[in-house]
Design brief:
The protein has 2 domains: about 230 residues, Rossmann fold; about 240 residues, P-loop containing nucleotide triphosphate hydrolases (Rossmann fold, 3-Layer(aba) Sandwich). Helix content is about 35%, strand content about 25%. It has 17 helices and 20 strands. The strands form 4 sheets. It has a 6-stranded mixed β-sheet, with helices on both faces. The chain has a 6-stranded mixed β-sheet with strand order 16-17-18-13-19-20, sandwiched between helices. It starts with a strand and ends in a 5-residue tail after the last helix. The chain binds adenosine-5'-triphosphate. Keywords: ATP-binding, Cell membrane, Membrane, Nucleotide-binding, Repeat, Sugar transport, Translocase, Transport.
């Protein structure tokens, strides 16, 4: 075995997270690590990489104990974590990123660019990522940024690579391309730990799967884990009901939001309507205008001209989120770390951030503390946030529970238009269904939703109508009439370039 973990126990201030975990990864094995939000997956990864030490138990690499080694010492032995959020430096070239910390230098200390680019080109080709090493990393697609992170680990002679939710926000095609890349690593003998909440891909890609539940581990061969449903039940410990929206046929079509000829950098001419109580699915490649209009409606993307009508009345184009919030238009960003949470603040203050200037405002700029606690406690319970109390720091929560805080913050505004961009990132199957049920329920009392996600299976379960974006315009509209994800991909691809 490459990695062997036995009897691991870890608690945080009396909260037992891992009680007795056994886990092993062989050379050339892809090992799936799954569990509910807060089950302890990241804690286990941190124990493997050396960020945390376990309270008791053993961690061995190549049959040698590594418990006492630091993160850097473990990296030298070949353990690398590729986090979900690419750790590349966007303004640096691909080569500079690849050799970060070990840039090739001339005698005078200056960077020796020519050999550095040549070596980078050679390494990238060798590891199956033939991209231009001179390119700025920010210009790479999301999937190539993730691959660059993996190549960086390989270049540093990684034996064990831990991929933390590597397919988040990737399209179906990009996911497949990443899978091929990972399978190549497996063939070369690299051990891989693959963490994901997308059980379909875990079952497809992994040789073995370990489920962490109630602090314990259960390992089995993927081929024996009958299907997604039985794996879901093992993770959650109970049957999960899937949310399927039951639209009322002939529901009243009262427009609530209308965008007319919206133009801006990547927005060439966007017009569409959103009806009261409707969930409208937005589909399009990056840069097609789908994400740009979502952000533009919340003052996070520059819109130069056009009209936005809300409830039949023209409102100005928001220049900043506060202006959109005044109209009860809220956006949940795909990037919770940059635009969703403040790690250093407790849950209750994070949830309140969107309503400090409205619902919670008291005379003389004071905050209505009682209302703040009521509001946060309500969402804490409703979204089943896993934490000791509303006073726990958000930075201490698991990723999925942080996302629930972001959604609570958005719902606190009592939005009339909720714009959600990859809302279920990092959320486990049970929580995802709870959130979908909640959104479905809120639309029955008038909430209207713009829903943007690459997960078309999820989108098709909840959207009433779909609009397709290409080249900064809406180029096709369709009622969601029992389409499959494959059909949606075909429709999306057929409109690329602007043809309806
Ligand atoms: N530094 C810390 N201090 C206190 N509690 C912590 C700390 N780190 C993690 N926890 C708690 O340990 C538990 C496990 O968290 P962990 O991040 O390992 O879960 P996870 O399985 O990775 O979840 P997710 O799927 O949501 O990312 C959570 O309840 C979390 O709040």
């Amino acid at each position: 075995m490459l990695l062997q973990i036995s009897n691991v126990y870890k608690s945080f201030g009396g909260k037992e997270v891992l009680k007795n975990v056994e886990f092993a990864v062989d050379y050339g094995e892809i090992h799936g690590l799954v569990g509910k939000n807060g089950a302890g997956k990241s804690t286990l990864v941190n124990i493997i990489s050396g960020v945390l030490s376990c309270d008791s138990g053993a961690v061995e690499l190549d049959s040698q104990p590594i418990d006492q080694l630091s993160v850097l010492e473990r990296q030298d032995l070949g353990i690398y974590v590729v986090p979900q959020h690419a750790t590349i430096i966007p303004e640096f070239s691909v080569a500079e990123n690849l050799f970060l910390g070990v840039w090739l230098r001339k005698k005078a200390g200056l960077v020796d660019w020519k050999p550095m680019f040549e070596k980078a080109e050679q390494e990238l080709r060798e590891y199956g990522l033939p991209i231009d090493p001179r390119m700025k990393a920010k210009d790479l697609s999301l999937v190539n940024q993730r691959k660059l992170n993996i190549v960086r680990a390989l270049f540093s002679k990684a034996k064990l690579i831990i991929l933390d939710e590597p397919t988040t926000a990737l399209s179906a095609d990009e996911r497949n391309s990443l899978f091929e890349f990972v399978l190549k690593l497996k063939k070369q003998g690299t051990g891989i730990i693959f963490i994901s909440h997308y059980l379909e891909e875990v079952l497809k890609l992994c040789d073995r799967i370990t489920v962490i539940r109630d602090g314990l581990s259960f390992t089995g061969y993927a081929a024996d884990s009958v299907d997604e449903r039985s794996l879901t039940n093992l993770i959650v410990g109970e049957d999960v009901e899937l949310c399927t929206r039951t639209r009322e046929p002939g529901a009243e079509k009262e427009p609530i939001l209308e965008c007319r000829n919206i133009k801006g950098k990547d927005l060439k001419d966007v017009s569409f309507r959103l009806h009261r109580g409707e969930i409208l699915g937005l589909i399009g490649f990056p840069g097609s205008g789908a994400r740009e209009i979502c952000r533009g409606l919340f003052g996070l993307y520059p819109v130069e001209s056009g009209e936005i009508h809300l409830n039949g009345r023209e409102i100005g184009i928001p220049k900043e989120p506060a202006e959109a919030l005044k109209h009860h238009i809220v956006y949940v960003s795909y990037d919770r770390h940059k635009e969703g949470i403040v790690q250093q603040l407790p849950i209750q203050e994070n949830i309140s951030l969107s309503i400090l200037g409205s619902k919670l405002k008291k005379l003389m700029g004071l905050v209505d503390k009682e209302r703040e606690i009521d509001n946060s406690t309500g969402y804490f319970k409703q979204l089943n946030i896993k934490a000791g109390s509303i006073y726990e720091l958000v930075g201490n929560l698991s990723g999925g529970n942080q996302q629930k805080v972001v959604i609570s913050k958005a719902l606190s505004v009592e939005p009339s238009v909720l714009i959600i961009d990859e809302p279920t990132i990092g959320i486990d199957v049970k929580s995802r269904e709870e959130i979908l049920f909640l959104i479905d329920e809120l639309t029955r009392s008038g909430l209207s939703v713009l829903y943007l996600t690459n997960d078309y299976n999820e989108l098709l379960r909840v959207a009433d109508r779909l609009i397709f974006f290409s080249d900064g315009k809406v180029v096709r509209e369709a009622e969601n009439d029992g389409f499959t994800a494959e059909q949606v991909i075909q429709m999306r691809d057929s409109v690329k370039g602007g043809a309806a």
